[in-house]
Amino acid sequence: MGSAGPTPAARGNAEDGNPRVLMALFASMANIQLIHVPYKGGGPMAASLMSGETQSAVATVGSSLPPLALGRVRALGVTSAHALISRFQFRGPA
Known about the structure:
Blueprint: E1 9-13, H1 18-30, E2 34-38, H2 42-51, E3 56-57, H3 61-70, H4 84-87
Parallel strand pairs: 1-2, 1-3
C-alpha cells in the first residue's frame, strides 16, 4: 500500500483535486511517502494498479468494480453516505 522505508510507493489518480488531497492526507497520517502518478482516466489507472505499477489509488466506483470483482485489488475505504459496493452485490474472494 505505502512505504514507511526509504523507497516511496507510487499512488495513482485519474483526476486532480479531491483524490490527490485525500492521498496526501492519508500519507501524512500514516507517516509514509507516496509518489503521485497522474493518469488520463480510470481505466489506465486501474490497469496500472492491477499490474503493480502503482500500489494505491483513489478511484471512482466505475473504475473500481471490475478489479474488485476479480479480486485483484482491495478496497480500504469508501467515501459515500451509502454502501455502494453492496448495492452492486460485490462478493469478494472466499
